[in-house]
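[step 3/7] fold_predict: job queued, chain A
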Amino acid sequence: MKRDFIPVNCWAAEDIPSNKLIDANPEFLSNTELLSIILGAGSNKENSVELARRILMECNNRISELAKMTPNKLTYMHGVGKQKAAKIIAAIELGRRRQEEQAVEKPDLCTAVRIYNMMHPIMADLEKEEFWVILMNHNWKLIKKFRLSQGGISETCVDVRIIIKEAVLNNATVIAVCHNHPSGSIRPSKCDDDLTNSIKKACEVMRIHFSDHVIVTDGAYYSYHENGRI
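[step 4/7] structure written:
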């Protein structure tokens, strides 16, 4: 008698592997669950988790043996067509390439000069003000930089809450901010001062180190930190 099976998408939401991957740490998923996500669907006899379990059993439950499987060997298994075989091989190949990649040295941004040197090529020729946020780890290494807002010739609107949110989401412990003055003047405005103070207070509440606010022009900069204002 043919055994009935329950498709994975009919399982309880918290048990579906793709949901578990998003809602929890990928390390918590088994090899079977991870492979089932790559497969996407099962066959007419088993769901994707059961198919993944059977594939791994054919490989003695070892990823290293799965990596040695040729397309012909994979497609020979029931339920594994060319598309599923291609997905498996692509995932294995991505893993290989990840191992071969050399770690990229992230810039150290512990001084205003280094921040300026990084941001000057981006901001020097802009005709409008842009406000950028620079997220760093505790070693002052860059995690991420992003443009928060773009405004007019003399000002731009900045939401401090978004700065803090992005810092928390990216596990940043140090942040700096940067904006340009298209006029060429490096003198900070009253709005610049007020914004700097607002960011500083928000960072203090969240125990994030606010390292600097750098104003960029073509050929010069102003650093709140170097001027003893942070």
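[step 5/7] annotate
Strands lie at 130-136, 142-150, 174-180, 209-217, 220-223.
The chain has nine helices and five strands.
exit 0
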